Amino acid sequence: MAAVETERIGRVCAAICLLSVCSLCTGHTRDRQVLIELNPGSPSPPPGDLLHARAVGDNDTLHFLFCSQGAPTLLLVHTNTSFSTVKVCLHVDSTTKPSTHEPSDWCSPDVNFLFLSQVNWAQFNDRNHSGGLTVEPESSVLYSTAVVFNRLLEYDDINDTADPTSDLFPPYDLQDFRWSRLNLSGLTALLCGNTAASSNGSLCLQLSLFETEGRGQHWPRLLHTANSSQLRVWLDGVLPRATRSRFLLELQSVGGASPLNRVEVHRSIDDEFTPSIFKVSQWISALNDSSDVLGFVQWKPVAYRQADPALEDAAPCRHSEPRPQSGEAVAAVSGLIRAFYKEPEATGLNGAAGGRRLAARRLFLTTGHRHDGGWFGNSHDPPAAGRDLRLHPEEGGGNGLRANQLMAVFDHVTSLCVSQLGLRRLLNMFLPDVTHCKMTSCL
C-alpha cells in the first residue's frame, strides 16, 4: 500500500457522455446559432453554477442546461419552435420575489425571454422544490432527457477479472464534491471538482457545443453536428487506494416517457477513424407510440491508455445491463433534476414524449477484460502521465426519457470517454455517422 500511496495517476481521462440530437422530427438543421449565459440574474456566485445554452435552428431549438449544484447534470430539451424559452419560477413568495416585479411578472415569459434572466436563486439553491424550471411553451417540448454524474467507485481487482466485486471502497459521492466555477471559453465550459476531505486529484467535465458540423483531430475522431453536444469526463491526479484499482463511474439518465432500458451491440466498419474496433454499442429505449422522437446514446467499446494514443494503447470496454433505480433518489442528488421534473417518482412507460416525469435505471461500463493486467499489464509499471479511454459511437439507436443509471467501470487509471446521446425518428432507425465517443465511462 505504501507504493500505492506515493503514486498518483498523472492525468486520467474518464470518458463520459455526449448529449446530441442527431436527427429531428422535421427536416435537418445544418447550422445553429448557440447562445450561452451563466448564472443569469444571480446577484452573487451561487453554490453551484447553472449554464443555459440555446441552440436555435430554423424551426426548432435545443436547450442545454449544465448545472453543478449537487451532482453535475446535463439536461437536454428539444422543442419544435425557434422561440421557446427556459423559465424558472420557483414558488416565489414575498420574501424571495424581486422588489421590482409582482409574482405574475416574475414568472412571465417577458421577464425570462431568451435566457434565464430572472432566476429565484434563493429557491433554486434550496433544492427542496420540484417543477420550478420549465421550457415554454410547454406544448412545444418534443423530448427531454438528462444525465447525472452520481458517484465514482473503486475496487481492488486482486484476481484481475475486470468484474466489480461487492467489496468496494467507500464511494466518492459527486454531489459532495467541491466544484470549481464553470470556466467558459467560447462554446466550451470546463468544470472540475474534488472531495472536501482531501485534494486527492480531481474529476473534470468539459461540455462542448457546436454551431456547425466537424470532426475531432484525435482518435476516435469524434464527428459532431450542430445538433450535438459533447461532454468529456476525466480523472486528473487521483490517488488509487489499491495496487490493482479499477474505477466505476455511476451515471443516471433521466427522462419521462421512454426509458433507456437496454443496450444493443452492432457490427460497425469504421476503420478509418477507429482502427481495429468493429462494434458499436447503443443504449436505447423501447418504442413508444406517444412520439416518433426518441433519443439514444452510442459509443465504440474502446479505451486508450494515452491522451495521444498509438494502436497498442487501445483497450476493450464493456457495459452492464441497465437497472432500475428510484427516481426520487436521482432528484435528491441533482438540483437541476429536482427543479425540472415535476414528479420525481418511478413511473411506467406511459406519458407524452415531452413529459416531465422521472424514473431511473443504472448501467455499468467496464474498461479492460479478464487477465488483462489492468492498466499496468503484467509489469506493474507506474502509470503514464496521461491515460485516455475513448468511445466512438456510430449510427442511430433509440433512447427515451425516464431515468436510468449508468455505471462506468474504469481500470487502475481512468480514461476519457465521449459518447453521444441524440434524437431520432422511429422511421429512421439508422442515421449517418454523427457521433463518436471516447470512453472509460459513457452514457
Automatic annotation (TrEMBL):
Pfam families per the UniProt record, alphabetical: NCU-G1
UniProt keyword annotations, A-Z: Glycoprotein, Lysosome, Membrane, Signal, Transmembrane, Transmembrane helix
InterPro entries named among the record's database cross-references: NCU-G1 (IPR029382)
Top-rank taxon: Eukaryota
Cellular compartment(s): Lysosome membrane
Subunit annotation: Interacts (via lumenal domain) with lysosomal protein MFSD1; the interaction starts while both proteins are still in the endoplasmic reticulum and is required for stabilization of MFSD1 in lysosomes but has no direct effect on its targeting to lysosomes or transporter activity.
Family: Belongs to the GLMP family.
Name this polypeptide is given: Glycosylated lysosomal membrane protein
Source organism phylogeny: Eukaryota, Metazoa, Chordata, Craniata, Vertebrata
